[in-house]
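ok trying again, last paste got cut off:
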Amino acid sequence: MKKFIHNITIIGIILLLINIAIEFLLFLRPNTYSYKRMYVEKHINDISCLLLGNSHIDHALKPNILGNGVFNMAIAGRNIVYDIELAKRYVPQMTQLKILIMPLDYYRFYFGREKNNPNEMKKPLGREGTYKCMYYKYMGIRVDGFWYWPELLNSKQDYMKRFLKNDVDARECDSLGYVKRSLSKRNANWKDRSLPKIIDTTIDANREKQKLLFSRYCTLAELAMNQGAKLVLIFTPLYKTYNNSTNPVVIKEMESFVANLKQKYPNVEYYDYSTDERFIDEDFYDSSHLTDIGANKFSKIVKEEVLSSLE
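nice, full thing came through this time. structure:
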């Protein structure tokens, strides 16, 4: 029995050491999170336009089209909590910052009134633990516990594939942070993927969630204002299947939200492209994200209609 316990202990120690070695080797391999952090810290005084947010920005706007000094720090699936922490860390250091871009997304205005959309074809991936891990380990955001550091325990991403990729492929974005979505890889039922939930506006919205969201955007607006910069909120292009599932009452709430924010912070600008008819089928990867073709078009529009007007 003693020999058995001894052997099990030895095997356990070996497995633990292997896991520790893998974790540190993964830490040394490039990925989207570590690359975007490294770029911003290296070019902190060169960035004049910083893009934060989620996949609605990182798949939609190409800095190489938008102009010099632009970097896309958005990452798919990002909770606004991490945007706040990143903005607090970096915006006060950005001596050249003129514009801070954030998405204003429909789904942020559910406020506890949502139910599943029967037309939705894409099921939630349940990657909350993955995101907590990646922000803790690679971006140094300490809002979650230290136990989220190990990828082997927390990440649902194909992390082992990073060992098989070169540095450029492993980071999964171009040199300025844009993440490409090719039309050729679009799913056959793309029109019914990434649809919004159904909102029952006969149910009272959760007031605490409303106040918290407003407070978070106020934080972003104030950080930008303190740097003499604009906070530009963008409602990105949506396909008609998405727009057909939205509730007009919620859209009005979004407009009122922006009006109140602009009243408090004059440096806030808002641009709504959600129903822009210039975007056609080939521009969409699913109901709420753009293909590379759509990103080219949208980036040119934003450069001409947003950035040029704010210079």
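cool. The domain at 31-121+172-310 is CATH 3.40.50.1110 (Rossmann fold). Residues 56 and 289 are 6 Å apart (CA to CA).
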